[in-house]
TrEMBL record:
InterPro entries: Aspartic_peptidase_A1, Pepsin-like_dom, PEPTIDASE_A1, Peptidase_aspartic_dom_sf. GO terms for molecular function: aspartic-type endopeptidase activity. Keywords: Signal. This is Peptidase A1 domain-containing protein. Residues 1-17 form the signal peptide.
Length: 382
């Protein structure tokens, strides 16, 4: 999930709340929920996560409740619990303030907005099975609307930067860093295609991926956005695109003209659905033969950023760009016979590419707050 932004130069301003568009879920069968517990060691930890309908979850303790199932969202910042879920612990602190955050609606056409409100507390927020716990993390207890619940399962925990908060607080992850709970202020996500994944805290799980990380600069003050080139079949068709990564978005959105360029390069059918009302965005949908999927990918770091880094000895950014393709299985959002709907959609709702978990799958994605970089690599097994 991602808050809707206006980019003024490179200084983003929060305008609205996060997107939570269930209409863009990928169609999946139900899966069994099995979370092996993985104890933390030293000032690093890792946890198992599971994928359900394109959203990723793991167990947290919040306040007096253990085993809450929270959505892992790298596109927003705060901790929110669904109505009725929050049970204060003895050290809970009522902040005597209400939060307000506006979400994109769940209407099939993406129109409208939904505002959630509720009181703010500070309380225990800990990742089950690890030592990663804070005793006074700000959290929002959703009071309105009561139903339907805003989030699947119990709520969500955000991993993005300060610019996405509606609680005036840094994320749980960043507070762990500030409290010296992690060896390095970074986390990695490794999502496989079998609906299981891992998240690593305080280190890079190098045994999980091939070769070195391809390191790309984070857009200043905009964790976790970076720059990329857009590629079809290993050839760059668009350069220097802004990309915001978001584990809490199921699919991929890009500006209509750039998505059109990509679909045209692949020679696939595209259908523009014009807006029918002023607040409903136009969308571009791509269809391809399931038996012959196109190869779409993102070049990271961008060629421009790689070239700039190669003349700057102190830059942590990789000197070469690597194209990371979306796995063919993840490019399919839906299918009817041999007619597959692409999981990349065009919309002018965001002035950037919003890159969701279909891209994450089969990759290791490092989120490095110390260096303000992101690192990408291909998982050994996916
Ligand atoms: C996670 O929470 C669910 C639901 O509360 C519970 O059934 C499950 O046993 C928990 N998993 C672990 C590893 O604690
Ligand atoms: C928060 O909202 C509730 C419900 O609308 C209201 O009763 C309460 O006074 C508000 N609290 C603050 C501190 O504004
Ligand atoms: C981490 O937690 C385990 C119990 O889950 C505990 O035995 C261990 O001492 C803790 N380690 C540190 C460094 O706090
Ligand atoms: C966040 O800060 C703004 C501006 O200082 C204030 O109006 C708002 O009430 C604060 N919100 C919370 C949830 O603390
Ligand atoms: C479509 O959106 C545009 C821009 O927001 C608006 O000017 C136009 O009136 C909308 N079209 C319809 C049919 O509402
Ligand atoms: C898709 O399949 C149809 C019918 O088999 C064929 O005519 C068409 O050329 C194929 N298109 C692509 C892009 O592979
Ligand atoms: C990366 O590329 C973007 C777009 O060309 C540019 O604005 C930015 O300054 C570059 N960043 C670095 C660190 O080279
Ligand atoms: C070189 O990279 C460092 C570290 O990212 C950065 O602070 C510095 O501004 C860069 N220098 C130039 C000339 O771009
Ligand atoms: C998936 O395809 C089926 C059959 O064409 C259609 O009924 C359904 O609405 C589609 N779902 C989505 C999310 O596009
Ligand atoms: C694929 O399905 C969509 C939605 O039903 C339709 O608009 C499109 O024309 C179909 N494409 C092909 C090649 O059959």
């Amino acid at each position: 999930m991602l808050q809707r932004l206006l980019l003024a130069g490179l200084v983003p301003q929060v305008v609205l709340g996060s997107s939570f568009s269930l209409s863009f879920e990928r169609i999946r069968s139900d899966v069994n929920i099995l979370l092996p517990s993985t104890p933390g060691f030293g000032r690093t930890a890792h946890t198992s996560e599971f994928d359900e309908q394109g959203f990723w979850f793991t167990n947290f303790t919040v306040g007096a409740s253990k085993d809450l199932i929270l959505l892992i969202d790298t596109g927003s910042t705060d901790v929110y619990l669904n109505p009725g879920v929050y049970k204060p612990s003895p050290i809970s602190q009522d902040q005597h303030v209400n939060f307000t955050i506006t979400f994109e609606t769940t209407n099939p056409d993406g129109s409208g907005t939904e505002t959630i409100v509720g009181p703010v507390y500070k309380d225990i927020v800990g990742l089950d099975g690890t030592n990663l716990s804070l005793s006074a993390q700000p959290l929002g207890a959703v009071a309105d609307p009561v139903s339907p619940p805003t989030f699947p399962h119990d709520g969500l925990v955000g991993f993005a930067g300060l610019y996405q908060t509606a609680l005036n607080s840094t994320s749980w992850f960043q507070q762990l860093c500030d409290h010296g709970e992690l060896d390095a202020c970074r986390f990695g996500i490794a999502y496989k295609t079998d609906e299981t994944g891992e998240q690593y805290f305080g280190y890079v799980a190098e045994e999980r991926f091939e070769g070195p990380l391809s390191v790309s600069p984070v857009i200043p003050n905009m964790e976790w956005g970076t720059y990329m080139d857009i590629a079809y079949d290993g050839q760059v068709v668009e350069r220097d695109a802004l990309m915001v990564t978001d584990s809490g978005t199921t699919i991929i959105f890009g500006p209509i003209d750039q998505v059109q360029t990509l679909f045209d390069a692949a020679g696939i059918q595209s259908v523009l659905s014009p807006n029918t009302t002023a607040d409903a965005p136009s969308t571009l949908t791509g269809y391809f033969n399931c038996s012959n999927p196109p190869t779409f990918g993102f070049g990271l770091p961008s060629l421009s950023n790689a070239t700039a880094a190669s003349t700057n000895l102190s830059s942590p950014v990789s000197h070469q760009s690597t194209i990371f393709n979306i796995l063919p299985s993840q490019l399919v959002q839906n299918s009817t016979g041999d007619n597959c709907t692409a999981s990349i959609h065009g919309t002018d709702e965001f002035p950037f590419w919003l890159v969701g978990q279909v891209f994450f799958q089969g990759k290791y994605i490092d989120h490095n707050h110390d260096d303000e970089t992101m690192g990408f690599a291909t998982l050994w097994q996916s």
